[in-house]
Design goal:
About 45% of the residues lie in helices and about 15% in strands. The chain is α/β, with parallel strands linked by helices. The strands form two sheets. A seven-stranded mixed beta sheet has the order 4-3-2-5-6-9-7, with helices on both faces. It has a two-stranded antiparallel ribbon with strand order 1-8. Helix 6 links the parallel strand 2 and strand 3.
Length: about 260
Amino acid sequence: MAAFPKRLRRVARHDAQVIGTSVRWLFTSREHHNYTYELTKLSREHLAWFVSITCAVPVATVRGYFAEIDGDAALRGHITAATTASARRGLADKQVRYARRIGWYAIVRAKRPAHVVETGVDKGLGTCVLAAALLRNTAEGAPGRCSSLDINPDAGYLARGAPWCDVVDLIIGDSIASIGALDRKVDIFLHDSDHSAAHERREFEAAEAKLSPAAILLTDNVTATNVLAEHAERTGRRFLAYRETPAGHWFPGDGIGLAW
């Protein structure tokens, strides 16, 4: 009982900060799902080490990839303009914030895949990030393309502008059927669609027959399920998970699971 007032003050300070952040977001953000935010400095550094270890590249190189996407003014300008012009502009923020997607960018830059497949596109922010990495790789002599799968015909409006659309094939339809119809080997497979464990498992099982020998598997669902870790164990792969920490946002963040 003697410690109760001190404990109460600590809880109250924490709760006041969370409530303040939540109230600011309610009145300043238009987003209703797929929230965007920056990462804390520490979370960015942990992400750099996560990519360094899983992709076997120096951490300084990964930090350089982060700096590339941060400094890509053309991409930021395009996303802002496409958001403003979209019929869905009332449900999206104009400020460009990539969060863990800078990790996707760095992974593509490090692995230089010929074919990336992502399931789940929504607005196309992640697609643009993947495309930007592929365009950089192409300029350095390692061309690649991205097959982006979504069941919603309106998905991917951010990724329809050049030059990003030049390396993206937007495929509308059921993801399992679309994976089965792929006619090229897959070097990076990213699950970011229906986040139920059953569907995630079906996607990884469907993707197995399409993977190149050194392919890596990613999931955006790692904070909710253990599906990719279990799949990695069954198929003799290694697995690591990263959980992001948003800066100045009420949302606790998502993460990246990677099997290789």
